[in-house]
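Dear all,

This email documents one entry for the complex benchmark we are building for the journal club exercise. For each entry we list the sequence lines for every component of the assembly. Then comes the predicted three-dimensional structure of the complex as a token string, followed by one or two observations. Please use this as the template for your own entries, and keep the labels exactly as they appear.
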Amino acid sequence: MTFLGVMVMDKLDREFFLRDTLIVAKELIGKYIIKEELIVRVTETEAYIGDIDKACHAYGRKRTNRTETLFMEGGAVYVYLIYGMYYCLNFVTEEEGNPCAVLIRGVEPIEGLDTMSNYRYSKPYEQLNSYQKKNFSNGPGKLCKALNIDKSLDKTSLINGEINVFENKDEKVENIKTGKRINIDYAEEAKDFLWRYYV
DNA sequence: GAGACGATAAACT
DNA sequence: GTTTATCGTCTCT
């Protein structure tokens, strides 16, 4: 148990990630991701289920060097590069051999503002304009930059690794909305799955 | 506040 | 050699 100001935080155990991917994606909303001294709150997630999801890298249980992480037991960290310049942070779910994950699409910064701001814009948080603050970590590539996440964290553990996920038991997360996923028109029918969650 | 568009490198075939 | 799918910048309202 960790005390963060007045909040009492409990670390999520492996069981949390071994459940249905859609449940994990929904319940990750409002949880806290802690890396070193940096803390962010999850505001948007998206589920990826390899077996039935054409947008998933491991669709059809396709095993390649990159997708190998998705086949690991739930609770692993999956990081991949997109557009040749941005990283995306995912949490692997379900049992070993079932390639599913939850993509973290958006977070809000809680602790370590200046450190994150330096990673993101190379300047203190106070010097950011309102546009930069608004777009600080509201996208998968942005939050990775703010948290200094790169491929070296791929395949690491959420249970005993550098990245940990906590929940605040006193906090009720309400108004979780669902929606279609984004930027995956190529996935045909899978693009209409209501697998995106946000507040 | 919202829409258009180009940048870029790794994974894969 | 082909595919991939976000961010920053610019533009207009």
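Observations: Residues 80 and 149 of chain A are 10 Å apart (CA to CA). Chain A has a mean pLDDT of 90.
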